[in-house]
Task: structure prediction
Amino acid sequence: MAKSFLIYGANGYTGELITRFAVERGLKPILAGRKEAAIRELAEKYGFEYRIFSLEDTAALDGALQEVDLVLHCAGPFSITSMPMVRACLRNKKHYTDITGEISVFEACAAMGKKAEEAGVMLMPGVGFDVVPSDCLAMHLKNRLPTATHLSLAFYGMGRISHGTQATMTMNVGRGGAIRKDGQITPVPAAWKTREVNFGQITKTAVTIPWGDVSTAYHSTGIPNIEVFTVVPPDGLRLMKMSRYLGWLLATGFIQRYLQANIPPGGPSDEERAKGRTLMWGKAIDADGNSVEARQQGPEGYTLTALAALNIAEKILSGNFTPGYQTPAKAYGSDLVLEIDGVSRQG
Result:
């Protein structure tokens, strides 16, 4: 008999935070991962069941999935770990969610949408800060301007990032950027474009990044031209521009091992998360020059990720899902993010 859902990678920074929030919501996930000591300690702390297996252990993976209805996959880098779990979910007819922001993962899941429909399950990568708030903002703008042909999104996260996020960013350094142009995901140089963004409370210089919405916003809205910006410190912007020329060096095994080994463990403290905020801006334009603009504010990014992921998990477990590949706003509407305490939108 199914027992709720599985959190794989529960011992990571975000997985552990989601586990804590699950306790507060009265949920009873099964915790899972590769590191027995860390998973067992977390499970015993909260009184949850746990399973230990690697994604290469097909028998153990299938056995664990037979106990649940849904997987919330939190073990990155998702470009490496997501497909074994997605294939297992399809094989066992279980719903799949994760907290990725990687374009390649979204596109791979989209390509498997037909198989998910046939299995009667939903594939929804990106149920956290990547990409729930931005996807909802994109859909909101599309609803206000149905003729939109161009979409720009920007976010400003005022808070520290975790070890896992930094590891993924480091792994992708030197790979350049991406936008969507005429419906196609198009490579561009790192830090391809900058612009001043008025977030309402503050104006900051933002730079293009290959954020998940380059993929997902198109699937949600059909808008064919999409750019996503974020605010980075001046040193970070210089490094992004430098990576255009030194990317090949930064991607070598020796340099990657050095960079990965020097990433500090953990993530923001509870106090840091409580003080942090995320600001978001978006603008849609159509071929006649008509435009609409909107802004959103919300909790710190990891807090928002945990709340959004569990909100969607509860919906799926209650039977509120659409089989196939889905984005958050496409499945649940542009106001999905407004269900999260502390999120507001203007425009």
User: Anything to note?
Assistant: The first strand starts at residue 5 and ends at 8. The CA atoms of residues 18 and 296 lie 23 Å apart. Residues 234-250 form the longest helix (17 residues). The chain has two domains: 5-129+303-336, 132-301.
